[in-house]
Amino acid sequence: MRIQVKLFAMAREEVGSSELSLELPPGSTAQAMLEILCASYPRLKPLHKHLRIAVNREFVKPDWQLSEQDEVAVIPPVSGG
Amino acid sequence: MRIQVKLFAMAREEVGSSELSLELPPGSTAQAMLEILCASYPRLKPLHKHLRIAVNREFVKPDWQLSEQDEVAVIPPVSGG
Amino acid sequence: MIAIVPDPINVLQVVESVIDPAAGAIDIFIGTSRNISHGKKVLYLEYEAYLPMATEFLDRIAATASERWGTRKISIVHRTGRVGLGESSVVVAVSAAHRREAFEACRYIIDTLKEDVPIWKKEHFEDGEVWAGREGSTITPE
Amino acid sequence: MIAIVPDPINVLQVVESVIDPAAGAIDIFIGTSRNISHGKKVLYLEYEAYLPMATEFLDRIAATASERWGTRKISIVHRTGRVGLGESSVVVAVSAAHRREAFEACRYIIDTLKEDVPIWKKEHFEDGEVWAGREGSTITPE
Questions:
Q1: End-to-end C-alpha distance for chain D, whole angstroms
Q2: How far is the CA of C46 from the CAs of B79, C30, C57, C111, in angstroms?
Q3: Does residue C136 surpass a pLDDT of 60?
Q4: In degrees rounded to 5, what are phi and psi of residue D107?
Q5: Helix (H, G, I), strand (E, B) or coil at D51
Q6: Which of A60, B41, B59, D120 could hold A64 in an S-S bridge, CB 3.0 to 4.6 Å?
Q7: Residue C53 is nearest to which of B9, B46, B73, comparing CB atoms?
Q8: Distance (Å, whole) CA B53 – CA B48
Q9: Of B6, D110, C27, D127, which Cα lies nearest the Cα of A81?
Q10: Nearest neighbour of B79 by CB, restricted to C53, C120, C135
Q11: Which helix (H) or strand (E) holds D114?
């Protein structure tokens, strides 16, 4: 399945894009997506353990299963305020 | 000795004046002044135990000795803010 | 800016008075007049102050807060005279490097002000008037 | 008023948006940009937000605070884009019947915002730029 992934802040800068498309095996989890993403963009690796995943604008646990129509976003440590 | 006493809020209204002059025995305490004041103005009596005395813009204890040049004020329960 | 004033308080001016290049946080407390008190409709409030003593106390409260929390700037402005519904009776503003200090110092200032500073509030109702805190009437938590 | 905006925040407008006839207390928190961070001179800040998620989160934080403390009105405005020194990055305003609720709800909102809402701050220095909270740099307490 093909997933659109939004990227923000330091994750966006390390990847060089605010959105990308990933080809994943059907039923892939949020964690699997993140591992494939970090393998494709090695500059993300130092950030890996600090990244959270949001699906449809909610944080999800690593074992959350993604679907093609999901709005998926990579959330680095936030610093608003 | 003669003491000028400032009155505020409910104390001022019960006495009907914002300042008055009291003749007291030399060396009188704040407590003695308050007792004489309440005896002269019976409408103050229900307030008596709620009144604090300030001398030269500081709260004083009941046994504080007054002097003629002091700035003496009767302070009912405050409610600023 | 520490002041007791007979005119409406300019909230923006009070906020601007604590802006500081080293401050990352500002906390502001505004006391406003409520339309209902003790279950009765309030028409307006009236504040009276023992001006020199109240001003000295506000100075001292600000100095204590500044020392205890290491704040940057503190302003306290309290109004006297007639205060209409929805108008501000007091504005406290505190700037500090970080938010914890700003919040705690601001809370300390308004709590201490309500406890000790010689300022009095009279509530005017349709059927009479009452000094807040007067014996026999409830002291309002505000 | 819950908003994430690219333009300077009108603090007075945010304060006025929470005025309520039944409120006796308003607490306001303003986050401002400091001129020094990690011992270095800051030139300006830049904020980025995941807009729809951040807005939904702010709505939810306000609803939780309103329910938990029984507040009257809540406004949260956060800025995005370039924010100059001394300018406000965020303004939180809470009105309530009494001051305890206003203070506690306001503190809860800014604490939760900094913890969970997808907004990011980049500090621009003379010799470079750094995302606050980025691995290897200290997460600033503000």
A1: 23
A2: 11, 17, 20, 20
A3: no
A4: -65, -40
A5: helix
A6: A60
A7: B73
A8: 11
A9: D110
A10: C120
A11: helix D99-116
Judge contact between A79 and D131, C-beta under 8 A.
yes
Chains contacting D (3+ CB pairs below 8 angstroms):
A, C
Cβ–Cβ of D142/C98 closer than 8 Å? yes
Q: Which of C30, C84, C90, C78 is nearest to C54 (CA)?
A: C78
Q: CA D122 to CA D128: how far, in whole Å? A: 10
D6 Cα distance to chain centroid: 14
A65 DSSP 8-state letter: B
> Environment class of residue C52 by beta-carbon count within 10 Å: exposed (0-12), middle (13-18) or buried (19+)?
middle
HSE at residue C102, side-chain half, CA atoms within 13 A, is 33
Q: Which residues of B touch C (CB under 8 A)?
A: 6, 8-10, 12, 46-47, 50, 54, 57, 59, 73, 75-81
Question: B78 with C50: CB under 8 angstroms?
Answer: no
| Beta strands D2-5; D73-79: pairing state | parallel
Alpha carbons C28 and C106: distance in angstroms, whole number:
7
Q: What's the DSSP call for residue B25?
A: -
Check C27 against D24: CB less than 8 A apart. no
Contact D103 C102 (CB under 8 A): no
Partner-chain residue, chosen from A12, A46, A78, that has the shortest CB–CB distance to D117? A78
What is the distance in angstroms between the CA of the first residue and the CA of the last residue of chain A? 37
pLDDT in tens, C29-43: 999 999 998 889 999
User: Residue A46 has which token pair?
Assistant: 């130092």
Q: Is D100 on the interface with C (CB under 8 A)?
A: yes
Per CB-CB distance under 8 Å, the chain C contacts of B76 are: 120, 131, 133-134
- If we measure between CA atoms, which residue out of D118, D122, D114 comes closest to residue D142? D114
| D99 lies within 8 A of chain C by CB | yes
> Is there an interface between A and B (3+ Cβ pairs < 8 A)?
no
Distance from CA of B28 to the nearest CA of C (A): 23
pLDDT digits (tens, 9 = 90+) for B18-53: 999 999 999 999 999 999 999 999 999 999 999 999
What rounded mean pLDDT belongs to chain C?
A: 93
Are the CB atoms for D139 and A50 separated by under 8 Å?
no
Per DSSP, what are the bridge partners of residue A22?
A3
What does pTM read for this prediction? 0.93
